[in-house]
Amino acid sequence: MRESKMLEALALVELYPGDEFRIAGSDTAYYIDKVYGIFRKNDDVISNEKLVTILLNPDLIIKCRTFSQREKEILKALYTLGFRYVTRDKNSTLCVYTSLPNKDKIGWNCAGYQLSFVDLPYFGKEVDFKYIRWEDESPFDIKAFLECEGYEN
Description:
Layout: H1 3-12, E1 20-23, E2 30-33, E3 37-40, H2 48-56, E4 61-64, H3 69-80, E5 85-88, E6 94-97, E7 102-103, E8 108-109, E9 114-116, E10 140-141, H4 142-146
Antiparallel strand pairs: 1-2, 1-4, 2-3, 5-6, 5-10, 6-9, 7-8
């Protein structure tokens, strides 16, 4: 399969260059290269058999969350300041918390200290944390991320 055709096929299941994903039931992480298609982390090209599996069973795809270097640095800084969780409220506001927050109808609340990203102008609009969504059932755990436990959709 030509590279451009492979990328077109992957786009049908919402996988694009730069995405990382796993296949349900496997611990192997794959990524989409903008030139050559699907690779494993050790740079071997994925087999056509796996490609067919992915295309025929898109429900087996588990996208891995990827963060920019700047987002990673911000998470490290927030953790150093004592914040442990990040959430997005229904109105799209990102907030950080020192203790585990609970979700209500319009936002998240906790007994500890909380801070909205709106109050942190240094971070600016270029930092989106697009994988932290209002629809998430639980808050984003900064410590788990920093310990490389991984985050998946």
